[in-house]
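note to self: dont lose this again. the chain is below, predicted strucutre after it. 65 aa total, dont forget to put it in the shared folder this time
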Amino acid sequence: EAKNAINDIKRRQISQEIQEETRRVAASVENYTQTLQSVYSIPNPDQKLKAEEELQSLIHKSDEN
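---
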C-alpha cells in the first residue's frame, strides 16, 4: 500500500511537471505568434526585413536553450 501511495505521488509530480511545461510552451508559442503577426503587419519593407531578421535571431537563440 505504501508503494502504491509513493507511485501515486510520483505520477502526480510528473503530471504537474508536464502541465507546467505545456503551459510554458503554449506561452512561448503565443508570444511567437503575436511577434510574427506584428512583424508581418509592418508596412515599411526595410523595417519589416529588420524585424524578420531579429525574429529569426530570437528563434535561433530559443532553439539553443
